[in-house]
Amino acid sequence: MRVNVYDELVERGFIAHVTDADAVHEALSRPGVVFYVGFDSTASSLHAGSLVPIMAMMHLQRVGHRPIALVGGGTTMVGDPSGRTEMRQMLSEGEIRANGAQIHAQLERYLHFGQGKAIALDNADWLLPLNYIAFLREIGVHFSVNRMLAAEAYRQRMERGLSFIEFNYQLLQAYDYLTLYREYGCTLQMGGDDQWGNILAGVDLIRRAEGATVHAMTFPLLTTASGAKMGKSAAGAVWIDGELLHPYDFYQYWINCDDRDVEQFLRMFTFVPLDEIERLAALEGAEIRQAKQTLAYEATRITHGQEAAQEAQAAAQAVFGSGGDVDAVPTTGAAANRLKEGIALTTIMAEVGLSRSRGDARRMVQQGGAYVNGDRISDVNYRVSEADLTAEGILLRAGKKRYHRLVVG
Fold it and tell me: Are residues 364 and 280 in the same domain?
């Protein structure tokens, strides 16, 4: 008997809140539900935390439901106050449009848009041309200021100050849902749990404006066992753009995860069958690395493709002394004249992204966490030079598992 995708999402830990579990379960038992997730265009790339909604969308599409991938070209111009202690930086319309185009291109790796199986939209197309007075008369009349101020997103901001432009965000997101319901028959919106109030506002607006019942589902806001926000690493955001974060570093993010996170990450960020995940999660001691290797390989394959995943896996085996080709390790060319003069280790570590800054690299050296070709460096004034060159270049290491290779170029 085929498992309902709703049950699959529950078992994998995707669902935090849902408007009516029985109704959503029933709707998802048959293919053809049109649903949407919004991605505001605040950066040129999504990050690993964005994979929570993306993976949920993939699960639904795989059983015949139809996703709408909505980038927020309009809402980003306002700025979502949810989960923020201060107002977001305002971007230009050109920057927002460019970011949205890149996000849609990234989503094409995960979702099938051909033959109408998924829809790519930008809410700037209907939000930017709005007549403000007409919008207030049609949409604003359905919103209670008292109820909005009671919402967690706005309540948190009241102490620090909530701008009027941000106060409009909930109306705009609700209007998105109404528009997608009217134009595409969309009846389910999904998003992070910090969006629960905004999504419910859209559900309520459709009930008031159209007399129709639609639904909402939110995902848990993940933190790692160490308390870090999902999608963040010591070096910064874990981007899904291979130009911003090399696939090898993406692979290493997963393989270096806390042992306590492995089972949850396997459930949410791979399609590994649940019974196999249970087997991997039961491994202990040194054997847990098998589970991490499965996690890292599968997560990298889904985002960067099978070839990149195989290269990252081979590179990891190479730098950990198990043979293989180091060519897939993140590599930077260093000018021959720079190496001849010598480059401060703290400078080059910051340049290649092994540390956030030269000061951070200096502390790493002082704490015994900086290596050149496997040798620990304790001199904060150490200079990387031609003397360090090997046939494979110069292998830099930060901590136990983060590598970068320098070659003459």
Answer: no
Look at residue 227 and tell me if it is in a domain.
no
Spatial CB neighbours of 257, under 8 Å, sequence gap ≥ 6 = 224, 265, 292, 295
Pairwise CA distance, residues 139 & 156, whole Å? 25
Does 113 share its domain with 183?
Answer: yes
Percent helix, strand, coil in the chain, to 5, is 50, 15, 35
Contacts of residue 230, Cβ cutoff 8 Å, sequence gap at least 6: 48, 49, 52, 221, 222, 223, 224
Closest-CA residue to 192 (of 17, 45, 10, 6) = 17
Query: Contact 284/256 with Cβ under 8 angstroms?
Result: no
Locus of tokens 């690395």: 289
State the distance between the two ends of the chain, measured CA to CA, in whole angstroms.
58
Rg over alpha carbons for the chain, rounded to the nearest Å, is 24
Residues 100 and 163 in one domain: yes
Provide the residue-wise pLDDT of the chain in tens; the chain has 409 residues.
Answer: 567 999 999 999 999 999 999 999 999 999 999 999 999 999 999 999 999 999 999 999 999 999 999 999 999 988 765 544 445 567 888 999 999 999 999 999 999 998 889 999 999 999 999 887 778 777 877 777 767 766 666 666 666 666 666 667 888 999 999 999 999 999 999 999 989 988 999 999 999 999 999 999 999 998 888 787 887 766 678 999 999 998 988 998 998 888 999 999 999 999 999 999 999 999 988 788 899 999 999 999 999 999 999 988 888 777 665 444 566 678 888 777 888 888 899 998 888 888 888 888 899 888 888 888 777 888 888 898 878 877 667 888 888 778 888 877 6
Crossing angle for the helix pair 262-269 and 51-62, to the nearest 10 degrees: 50
In this structure, the answer to whether residues 372 and 390 fall within a common structural domain is yes
Q: 10 Å Cβ neighbour count for 176?
A: 26
CB contact at 8 A, 199 and 189: yes
If asked whether residues 12 and 119 sit together in one domain, one would say: yes
Q: At 382, which CATH number?
A: 3.10.290.10
Total domains present in the chain: 3
b/e burial code for range 89-128 (CB count within 10 A of at least 16 → b):
eebeeeebbebbbbbbebbeebbeeeeeebbbbbbbebbe
pTM here is: 0.78
Q: Checking DSSP bridges between strand 66-72 and strand 34-40, what pairing results, if any?
A: parallel
